[in-house]
């Protein structure tokens, strides 16, 4: 998953404004108590950050991929 894919999914799944707040402010234990923005800035894989965010917010698997039902990121390593 590329950074652009991550950003697009955030917008599609959470909405543009709310999604940006989540990325900047939601502290996630799965990311070492960092926000998604901090984790990405520290070099975390966008795919891993996406799964951590969705897991923390209990996003169902069928809703994690936005408008493109054929798009999927492999599960985190």
From TrEMBL:
Highest taxon in the source lineage: Bacteria
Name the UniProt record assigns to this protein: DUF3046 domain-containing protein
């Amino acid at each position: 998953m590329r950074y652009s894919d991550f950003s697009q999914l955030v917008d599609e799944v959470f909405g543009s404004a709310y999604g940006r707040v989540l990325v900047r402010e939601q502290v996630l234990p799965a990311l070492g108590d960092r926000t998604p923005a901090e984790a990405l800035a520290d070099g975390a894989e966008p795919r891993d950050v996406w799964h951590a965010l969705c897991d923390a917010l209990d996003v169902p698997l069928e809703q994690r991929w936005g408008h493109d039902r054929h798009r999927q990121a492999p599960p985190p390593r």
